[in-house]
Design a protein that fits this description.
InterPro entries: YtzH. The chain has 5 helices and no strands. The chain has 92 residues and is mainly alpha-helical.
Length: 92
């Protein structure tokens, strides 16, 4: 059963929240972020601000996948992660 938009946003928020709180994560989490963002971006019901947010998260996930030190990458993005969690809450 595919995830609906609400479920996808919840999962996106959960991963970002975990990375914010733990200051660490896994490549598989970054890959999941990438898949979620791609799926959400394919949804034509999002406005320009939401698309911009998702593009930022996509770039972050790509950087995490390619990073030789993922924990450092996550730590570097702590301010953005906190903001993204708040911004995702507004997409519901």
């Amino acid at each position: 059963m595919p995830l609906n938009k609400h479920d996808q946003l919840n999962l996106l928020k959960d991963i970002l929240t975990n990375q914010t709180q733990d200051c660490c994560g896994s490549v598989s989490e970054c890959e999941q972020l990438e898949r979620l963002v791609k799926s959400l971006m394919a949804n034509n019901q999002l406005d320009g601000n939401a698309l911009s947010l998702l593009e930022e998260i996509y770039d972050y996930s790509q950087g995490g996948i390619q990073s030789s030190n993922l924990d450092s990458h996550i730590t570097t993005y702590q301010p953005q992660l906190t903001q993204w969690v708040q911004d995702v809450n507004e997409l519901y």
